[in-house]
Every structure is written in structure tokens, then in C-alpha cells.
Amino acid sequence: MAKSPESIEKLRTEIAKMPGIGIRTAERLAYYVQSLSNEEARKLIGAIREVKAKAITCSTCFNISETDPCPICASRGRDRSTLCVVERVRDLAAIEASGSYRGLYHVLGGRIAPLERVYPEDLTIDGLLRRAQESEVKEVIIATNPDTEGDSTANFLMDKLAPLDVAVSVLARGVPAGGQIEHAAQSTLAGAISGRRGVSAKDK
Amino acid sequence: MAKSPESIEKLRTEIAKMPGIGIRTAERLAYYVQSLSNEEARKLIGAIREVKAKAITCSTCFNISETDPCPICASRGRDRSTLCVVERVRDLAAIEASGSYRGLYHVLGGRIAPLERVYPEDLTIDGLLRRAQESEVKEVIIATNPDTEGDSTANFLMDKLAPLDVAVSVLARGVPAGGQIEHAAQSTLAGAISGRRGVSAKDK
User: Fold this and answer.
1) Do B69 and B58 form a contact (C-beta atoms < 8 A)?
2) Domain span at B25
3) Is A21 inside a domain boundary?
4) Complex ipTM more than 0.85, yes or no
5) Are residues B27 and B115 located together in one domain of the fold?
6) Structural domain tally of chain B?
7) What's the CA dihedral at A75, A79, A83, A85 to 10 degrees?
């Protein structure tokens, strides 16, 4: 990596800690920050400060919000009988954006990944089990990511939820809408085939 | 895009202004900032402030530095007879990191790109022409990026430098070291073939 002024290198180091940001992108962004007008830099710093000051964690579902409970937990219009368990707030936001779910959420704060030293006790699983035992909760939808860690986290949760008086479901696996079968991963196609739906008159 | 708390959305907007950062990456980074400890957030803000306070532009070569003139312009160990013209400070840093150049630099601040409304007068071309006329300068190496805008900027500079008493050169084009011919772009291969070097005994 090239030698840059010390202040640029320091900022690059901070930026490179961000998820998915390599050292080269970090350097590009550090030089971008240097190129900002004072007014623009103030806006950026202000926005960081504001997020830190205002965005808090909902003590019920662990969503990030500016209120506690968060607007979803506080809403009277939501179906309180269903909890959708997601790894991250971003997953919650994506499901909300789909407009296809009207229940409540529970944000785990990650997934079980022993190789990265993330264990069940690092996640909000206790809170989930407590909520799943509330009388109004009828179903828990496990919406962890469809990858190795997400699946093993889902399995762990299924074991923990099995003894409770609550229905447990997982998201459907299949080919993504708008995707192309030609480019789908083998595991995606395997899931789509094993989970195929009958549509012939005989099946209806 | 999903609905996030207002402070997260604000920060996302600021981050999405950064070059090469899409709205999804910006959202991921905004949530990352939210997840930082107060201490970590302070470090990030401090690093931004420091870059803005300390990193300045060298009034000679337009390098970014914490001193003016920058360490390269101020160095007694550099070959002052050669100027290497680059688009951006990052390009300068990359050439420095290669350890293959001991002359001085001149940072244009971008490239001519009329479609993006970047015209010659937006770059530091006047400063370059002034420096190129200094008696100690014997050669100007044009090291703009090997793409359409970079090439037309190089052509523009060649025209401007032609009347001056200075040698002008451009970087060699060819297949990149460590690359694979199979994956090289057609234009890269075309440049490599037209610029081929004789190595037979006859050529030596």
C-alpha cells in the first residue's frame, strides 16, 4: 500500500475496519474525505454524531430505532402473534421493505459462528425464547440467512423452540424472483427442486 | 430501499455521496457506525477532523500532504529534471509505492471529461505548463489513466507541451505483470502487440 500523509493513513485505518471495505477502498474514501469542503465534512461528522446519539436498540426486539420500544413493537396495527427472527437489522429492513409481513420481529444480532467466536450466548436468543413463551405468540418464523452459519443458527433455534407451545417455520427456499436459473447456485437449484410445488389439477 | 430510522437514513445519504459507494453499501456502513462503541465513533470522527485539519494541497505539485511544499517537492534527493503527471494523488501514491520513480510529480486533479463537465481549466494544467518551462525540467512523463478520458487528457497535454523545450513521454502500454493474457482486454493486447519489443540477437 502506498505511503500517504499520516492523517490520511489514520483515517484509512478507521475506514478499513468497516465491513466489506478493503484497504484500497478505504484509501479512496479517505482521500474523498480530504477533498470535502469544510461544510460537507461538518455534515458527515454531524450525521455520524446523530446516529450515535439518536439510534438506539429496541429492548424488546433489538431493532435499531430512535424510540424504545421501536415503532414496530409499539404499533397497534401489527400482528402480535408472529415473530420473525432475523440476524441483523438490515434483514428486518429488507423484509419490511417487501411489504409482505405484518408481524413483529426479533433481531438476533448475528448468527452462531464458532470459527469467528460468535456463540449462542452472544446473540439475543434468551430474549427470543422468553418472547416465544408469551401467550399471544403463536408462530416463530426463522429468517436467518440461507448460508452455512444461518442454517446452523436456524437449527439451533429450532431445537430450542421445539419444546415450547409455538409453531416454528422457516423461509421458503427456491430460485429468486427475477433471477436466472442458468446463473443460480447449485444449492439454490437443489432447494428449489426439493421444495417444488405441485400445480397440476391432481395436486389442487 | 428499506425504511430505516431517520438518523441512519441521513448518514446513509452522506455516505452514498462517496465515490464507488452504492446505497446498499452506504446503508451497511451507516448501521456499522451505529454499532460502534462511543470510543470507536470518537476515533472515526477524530480521524475525519484530523484529515480536514492537517492534510493540505502542495501548492507546487498539488499532492496532498501535511506540509507545503510536500515532502517530495521539498526533498533534495529527488531528480528535479523529471515531472510525472498523474490524474489523482492516489496515482502518485501508487507510483511512489512501486519504488520505480525518483523524479517530481504534478497532480492534475482529475482528467478532462466534458460529459462530466470537467474541462482543462478545472485541472492544474496552467501550473504544469509553468513548471515545464523551468530550466531544470528536462522531461514530462504523462501518466494519466489508460482509458478514454485519460488518453484524451494525455493528447491535450502533449499538444500543450509540444512547443516547449522539454521531452514528453507516456507510460508503456502492455500486458500487466502477473496478469493472464487469456483475461486481458482486447485493447490491452492491442497495445502490447503494437508496442512489442525486439529481443532477438538481431535487435540487440
Assistant:
1) yes
2) 1-38
3) yes
4) no
5) no
6) 2
7) -70
